[in-house]
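Before any further analysis, backbone shapes were mapped to integers, which produced the following:

***
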Amino acid sequence: MLTWVMYDISITKSRNKVVKFCKQAGIYRVQKSVFLGELNPAQRKEINAQIEDVINKKTDSVYIFPMCRDDFKNCILLGQAFDKKLITDEIKAFFV
């Protein structure tokens, strides 16, 4: 299922670790503090545990939102938005 990972993390070292976890999970950075990509339930559980271990729960915020493809298709992207095709199988099919 498509999953958004959004964060506001004050300490650079912790923030960099979260970026690393997201990239290792294979999800795409769509803004500085926003990643989006396909994660199965086990992957979501794993990234949740990894992030939970490195953030300060009193000062940091992390949101992990699953989203179905139908809802994603209805998203409206304005301005300098990311390319939706990078997140869907339309582009991935070219590299497989």
Observations:
- The radius of gyration is 14 Å.
